[in-house]
Amino acid sequence: MIDPQHQLPDPLSDNAGIVIKELRDRKSWGPDQEGLLTLLIDMLGRKRYITFSGRLGHYHLERIGQSCLLDVPPNRRGRLSVFRGQRIRLVCVGADRMDHRLMAGPVGLLGQTTEATG
How far from chain centre, in Å, is Cα 110? Predict the structure, then answer.
């Protein structure tokens, strides 16, 4: 479980961030947004982001296109344990009533973000 107070704003300053922002700011869902989501999943997959399912209350990302940065502590267990000691981007790429499909990947060391995250 992630404390929402530990989530950091995603600067959305890279190529993936631009797509995330478009998805986040959408007013409706249609073929254009579906294409953006497919593009985003492909972009993040090429960066070796992991994909996993998580409960809404555990990750606090409610809609497709929501994202945050998170510093993963060295003692982290569970799905994000592979990112111990790193800053990651966490993105919601699928949502249903109880579980959400999330993607996560490193963007830097604890406390710092690399310039090119996408």
Answer: 16
DSSP 73: P
Q: What is the phi/psi pair of residue 65, to 5°?
A: 100, -10
Total length of the chain: 118
Position 59, amino acid: Y
The pTM score is 0.87
Per-residue pLDDT reduced to its tens digit, 11-42 = 999 999 999 999 999 999 999 999 999 999 99
> Going by C-beta distance under 8 Å and a sequence separation of 6 or more, which residues neighbour residue 18?
12, 118
User: How many C-beta atoms lie closer than 10 Å to residue 67's C-beta?
Assistant: 25
Render pLDDT for 60-94 as a digit per residue (tens, 0 to 9).
888 899 999 999 989 988 899 999 999 999 999 99
Q: Is 107 helix (H, G, I), strand (E, B) or coil?
A: strand
Q: Contact 89/99 with Cβ under 8 angstroms? A: no
How remote is the C-alpha of 49 from its chain's centroid?
A: 9
